[in-house]
Amino acid sequence: MSLLFQETADVTTEAAPLVNEQSESLLGLITAGGPSGTIIIAVLILLLFFALYIYFERLMKIRSSSKIDSSFMLNIKDHISNGRLDSAKMLCAKEDSPVARLTEKGISRIGSPLEDINSAIENAGKLEVYKLEKNVSMLATIAGAAPMIGFLGTVIGMVLAFKTLADAGGSADMGSLAGGIYTAMITTVAGLIVGIVAYIGYNHLVVKTDKVVHQMEENASDFLDLLNEPA
Residue 45, SS3? Predict the structure, then answer.
């Protein structure tokens, strides 16, 4: 038994330095490019966290907005057919979704010309789409800006490398040039990673938003058809 405990302790002791070495190597990768490379990497890391925050916050919002009871429109139809408009509005108020809010807007305009009802629903729909797309454009901005920031680091790194070469009279060794070249490469990689993550997140949110918009349009059409039905 004591031998087993000793082997476990040895494994734990060996694993701890390995984790520390990995952490130090990651930090070393970030700081090895010098002050300019470190600043650019830090900016890209901030952009990455910001992009991930926007993505997950919007994703949860869009998912919650797409959830609605499958019998919602049937209940609305039943209330309106029986003249219970207040009950229909209360049912809409219980549902925290764009579809419910559009339906409530249409119910509040019942009695007006059909064109006015349709216009009111369209205006309310534009407002709901604006709410769904809030901050999503920032992901597109990050997707475009991150590779450019990385490319800025590339240019800075190459400038540093050529400056080192010039200061050495054209006879600098590879060790002297390595710092500038490293800055050029690591910032490019970091910029592309952040840009790819933001680009994928942006397109995924666009697809999810389009599905909610389609759901809104479908239910708005069902509501207008309900008003067109003969009494």
Answer: helix
